[in-house]
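Bug report (template v2)

What were you trying to do?
Predict the complex of my protein with FE2/S2 (inorganic) cluster.

What happened?
Run completed; filing so the output is reviewed.

Input:
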Amino acid sequence: MYICVCHAVSDKTIKQAVENGCCSYREIRDCLDVGKTCGRCVPDARAVINDTLIELAADMRKVA
Ligand code: FES
């Protein structure tokens, strides 16, 4: 599903960027241009980032 229509960025692309080390909206914006045009996608992009970080933290707890 597209999160940022202006820049054709999907939730999967944001999730992959987080898994590859981007850990804030600012980093995602700089990396993928999410939110740089109309800005309507910012809340949804932040939600994907937060959900992915929570998933990664949960996975780390399973390993530890
Ligand atoms: S939908 Fe992301 S900047 Fe417009």
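What did the reviewer find?
The two ends are 33 Å apart (CA to CA). The pocket of FE2/S2 (inorganic) cluster is lined by residues 4-7, 34-41 (CB under 6 Å).
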